[in-house]
Prior knowledge:
By secondary structure, the chain is of the alpha/beta class. It contains 13 helices and twelve strands. It has helices spanning 11-15, 18-27, 42-45, 66-79, 91-99, 129-134, 156-168, 192-204, 218-228, 242-250, 261-269, 320-323, 327-337, and strands at residues 2-6, 32-37, 53-56, 83-86, 104-108, 119-121, 176-180, 208-211, 234-235, 254-258, 273-276, 294-296.
Amino acid sequence: MKVLVIQTAFLGDVILTLPLIQVLNEKLPDADIDVVLTPTAAPLMEGHPSIRSVIRYDKKGSERGWRALVRHVSRIRATRYDVAVVPHRSLRSALLAYLASIPVRVGFDQGAAPWLMTKRVPYQRSAHEADRNLALVRGLEIEPPPKPRPLLRPSSADEARVESFLRSSELVGRRLVAVAPGSVWFTKRWPEERYSALVKMIEDAGMSAVMIGGEGDEDVCMNILIRSGASHSASAAGKFGLLASAALIARCRALVTNDSAPQHIGVAVGTPVVAIFGATAPVYGFAPYGEKDRVLETTGLPCRPCAVHGGPTCPIGTFECMLKISPDRVMEAVVGVAR
């Protein structure tokens, strides 16, 4: 059997699709499972033991538009997949499976084009995203087990790069706390000055902060370190790919992050997560779900949550959801979960 999973959403969504893929691999041991991903997410899945191959689809870049969709349809049709599992509820994802003539197409009963699915599974709005995705196996007559932890497998080369970074930063042997202050959305970002205060508290407690982020987060992470006056901390922002970043987070006693992809990486590698939620809320189903993980949020605000993904500015100009979360409160959570 050949199975195609189509998930071209954000990086966090991709990580929360891994439990589904892992269960498909477990329950269908003779199946070859391929996955359609964006180029951003692809490195995270290449070499994963549950996945045969990754198909890159740059839907917002070089492969934007209908011509590229048709090219992908032709390639996928030629592989003659038996089953498509489509957790991404977009028209493009549904069309990819439908136009490729995959005979069994499993998706949700809500979304852009549920009628293009041959088997529709109820979309559980109140469930965690990992559970929602996992429920899709019911379309293949499989009863979903309790959601497993998504597994990420950094290579030995990734581990070696992390070890080299820690040695050059004189952090080997120190108690590390990963700090990931970035997000695409402004209203998901706890303010930089709060992160600087937190980094100082981490050092005052005898630990070291390791700043985590992509190339676009380099300046923010360095500014936070400079403002904190840190002397035993370092920034890894922009230095590593996704799996090497996962390997680095795995070396830490805790991870502090906004509601963004690093929280899901933390869950995947088993590092306790302190997640700071502002404009968004755990009710949407994207909170970390490790045993020791903590979500910090400001409850009782009539304006919150104001968006599923966050936004460029606070709609009412107060930003109370973030400003009412103090560095002391975050540090208390770090001490409480640190392993």
